[in-house]
Amino acid sequence: KHAPVITLDGPGGVGKGTISTLLAEKLGWHFLDSGALYRLTALAASNHGISLKDEQAVALVAEHLDVQFANDASGSQIILENEKVTEAIRTEEVGTNASIVAAYSRVRDALLKRQRAFAVEPGLIADGRDMGTVVFTDAPLKIFMNASAEERATRRVRQLQEKGATADYDTVLADIVARDERDQNRATAPLKPADDAVLLDTTCLSIDEVMNAILDEAASRQ
Ligand code: C5P
Fold first, then answer.
1. Can you give 111-156 as a three-state secondary structure string?
2. What separation in Å is there between the alpha carbon of 204 and the centre of ligand 1?
3. Which of 46, 74, 135, 143 is the most exposed place for a label (fewest CB within 10 A)?
């Protein structure tokens, strides 16, 4: 029996990362960014010159992923094979590559145990696509966040601009639509709400409103 888990699934750019981080801080719980594991697999494969089309070779990379989640003065850091990749895994290119390797069932199997190991006391906020449907099926609270592709593109552009990057709305929107398509239509663990998930459309909600909706749900289940 593992620690309590709140799963937060939904498409890219819906704000799960922001909300999960805030929830974990507020509750004092651990946080699993499962997308980072798929991004790390894609980056490691590219670094080793492995073609993303080579399912078996990519699966071996996932099975032997040498990654550490550490904390230093500037916050939480992700270390891949002794190299800090905290920012490097956040590019749109790595995101797209992540969604390619995420379609391989052997890759998903390899990452399953690693993800479940995050469920330790006092609890875990698990952010991803299949947290409620595959990884933590017995979680007492499952949230599925959604927002229109246009709203998600607007948010993503704003986020990129805040980081000082240039961002073209049409390109970002096209990426979001393509990634949704791939995540929803794959055979293994497609993006969809768990039967017992609470659906939360955040298109017209602020961060505070989303936080309050989730905390209310959590409180009503205690
Ligand atoms: O959430 P993030 O954008 O970091 O995820 C990158 C990609 O990893 C997603 O587009 C999706 O294809 C994949 N992913 C997944 N299952 C998860 C988390 C992410 O398939 N639990």
1. HHHHHHCCCCCCCEEEEECCHHHHHCCCCCEEEEEECCHHHHHHHH
2. 24
3. 74
